[in-house]
Design brief:
Layout (H helix, E strand, L loop, with lengths): L4 E2 L6 E2 L4 E2 L19 H13 L4 E3 L8 H12 L8 E6 L8 H13 L6 E4 L8 H13 L6 E4 L3 H12 L5 E7 L12 H8 L2 E5 L10 H4 L9 H11 L3 H13 L4 H11 L5 E3 L6 H10 L6 H10 L6
Parallel strand pairs: 3-4, 4-5, 5-6, 6-7, 7-8, 8-9, 9-10
Antiparallel strand pairs: 1-2
Helix pairs in contact: 1-2, 1-11, 4-5, 5-6, 9-10, 9-12, 10-11
Length: 320
């Protein structure tokens, strides 16, 4: 099993892959257009498979069904008898049309939804707020000092916004733990826009969301285009534009996977968590237990240096 990595400079240890549980909000509200509804028993089985396979952290957010994902995650963990000190929980505050003053006002909702589990990482979901990163970090620092959260992260912040958040936390004797951004073989922009470079300099962990590019990197849509017909409308429109241009990447992933008796998704995830050292971790989602088991296997899959180079080369166009 892949060894644990430190989350930024927080001392918190996480597995190279966590489990994103946005899909636990499926079937309700806006999420019915993106994800199907999952039975509670299936959610428990997914969480159980993750924990049994060595995945020790889970990522959710306020906006995922207005807390539905948070509540479902906590319920599954509690039903399985998982203790608070056995798991790392990351969630997010939604800043849109709000100010930093909302952070202390809504932390009670987050804690109630996730009870009895601690918020180990509390992230600002995006930079679209009426407040500055500095003001948000000050509010977050107050929560750390009050013992309501353990560490602070951001999501979808550019390099300059990361620096401002880091500086504001540093003034309070804290560190910026992470920046959660889109990153995969089909989305490599952080390598050229300063985000990855800044994260390395500040020792901030990059948490890659959509590390399989919404399932495109599994190759399933290339091998069976009719699968798109059963995909919720919101995802279908997004996937259609990616499938054709990603064909060369899928071909290499399939070749590499055959050499290791693995799946293309596992090769893609292995590249993600190893190509840039310990700086990058990922949070693939799962709507089936099989998906989690693939992630578990990916943490053990070691590609050769030539295989890593081939994947770098074939996906260079996605660095733009």
């Amino acid at each position: 099993m892949g060894r644990l990595r430190e989350l930024g400079k927080t001392g918190i240890k996480i597995s190279p892959l966590g489990l994103g549980v946005m899909q636990f909000a499926g079937g309700k509200g806006l999420f019915k257009f993106a994800f199907p509804s999952l039975p509670e028993e299936e959610k428990r089985e997914i969480v159980q498979a993750a924990a049994a396979g060595g995945i020790n952290w889970f990522d959710t957010a306020e906006m995922y069904g207005r807390g539905l994902s948070e509540r479902a995650l906590a319920a599954a963990l509690e039903d399985l008898g998982v203790e608070d000190d056995q798991v790392i929980i990351a969630t997010k505050w939604m800043p849109f049309l709000r100010t930093a003053r909302n952070i202390p006002r809504t932390i009670g909702e987050r804690l109630d939804n996730l009870h009895p589990y601690t918020i180990d990482l509390y992230q600002v979901h995006n930079p679209w707020s009426f407040s500055s990163p500095g003001a948000e970090m000050k509010a977050m620092a107050n929560l750390v000092e009050a013992g309501k959260i353990r560490s602070v992260g951001v999501s979808n912040f550019n390099a300059d916004q990361m620096r401002r958040a880091h500086s504001a936390l540093q003034d309070r004797g804290l560190v910026l733990a992470s920046n959660q951004v889109q990153y995969s073989l089909l989305h490599r922009e952080i390598e050229t826009n300063g985000i990855l470079e800044t994260a390395r300099e500040l020792r901030v962990t990059i948490i890659a969301w959509s590390p399989l590019a919404s399932g495109v990197l599994t190759g399933k849509f290339h091998n069976n285009p009719r699968l798109l017909e059963n995909t919720p409308f919101g995802r279908r429109r997004m996937l259609q534009s990616q499938i054709e241009e990603s064909q060369p990447v899928i071909q290499v992933l399939e070749e590499i996977a055959r050499e290791h008796d693995a799946e293309p998704a596992q090769a893609a995830l292995s590249w993600l968590i190893n190509a840039r050292g310990d700086c990058v971790v990922g949070i693939p989602g799962a709507s089936k237990v099989d998906h989690v088991q693939e992630s578990v296997g990916a943490m053990d899959l070691v590609l050769t240096s030539r295989e890593m180079e081939r994947l770098d080369e074939v996906s260079l166009r996605f660095r733009k």
